[in-house]
Amino acid sequence: MLSQMFRMGRSQRRIFAKTILTQIQFSQNLMSGGFKIRDHFGQLPYFSEEECHRLKQHLGKKNFYSFCGGGKTALTKEERAEALCKAFNCSPASPELKRKSEEIEKVVEALPLVKLTMVAGVTGEEEACVGDVLTCKMTVEFLNLEKGQKTGFVHSKEYPFLRRDNWFLIITDEQMLGLAAVEKIPLTDCIYEKEFKERIQRPGRISFTCVLVNDSYRGLDQVQKVEVTVLEEPTNRETFEYSKYDLKEIRALNPVQAAMIDQANEDTDSDEEGDDEAAELRKKLKSAGLKKATVAFEKEEVAQAVAAAEEEESSSGESGSSSGEESSSEEEEVVPFAQTAPNAVSLI
What we know:
Helix content is about 45%, strand content about 20%. It contains eleven helices and eight strands. The radius of gyration is 48 Å and the shape is elongated.
């Protein structure tokens, strides 16, 4: 939630990986009683601060995760029984130690012990170069969970309600300052795998840290560091020559570009159709003898062409009517007799 607020710009302060870890650690202390006993061994039954101190002296550098059977220095059931004998300061044959050991073993079997493996590289290549896609494969494996089994409810001496634990994956840098990703991972089966892919932008050394944190138990968190050296140009790769067909497919237009070109072609087709109609209209005007309308149409003055055509038609009509009237007047006009016969006498 904090990571989403920061990315959306709603958080006034920058969110670091330590901020997320602090909140998860608060949940761990609330569930496992960390506010009363800060030591991780205090999550086990019958353990107080004195038992925790004696057990840590006996184990040395081994931590709670190793005591429960995880890691390279994992303890076996017999070694745990010996360590509990030192912690409770009892003899090995004591019935009280046997009863406590059996109950502690049940708790250890119920703990979600996981192993985190992170591998990063370019698929199919030995080296990583600028422009390649870096693939990070994460594998989480439950150590004490058989195939077909699923995790149960949280064991807690302080929390009185039923609750299931959650796992969170945090990807950050070595100083735990940057925050690349925060994700809640549903770890319910015995094996969980996930891949992250990102294109490499710059050469040099790329290092990041993956932290897998449980929100209910302390001391079971896993940290994995990954380093990748990125080259500017490849050195051990063969140059692959593409065929003409492959190059043609690579250069093929995507659907958006193809749609834009189709639209442009439709526009040119409509323009050509308009040109054909204009040429046909120009021929009709010339055949009708409307010269002014033809000249105006060629100048793309359609309105003036129409007006000129109407004017020429009206003028031609008027000239026709006037010529008819003149001819009729010549036929009906009476010439004086004196002009035709100079010797004649006027009766008037």
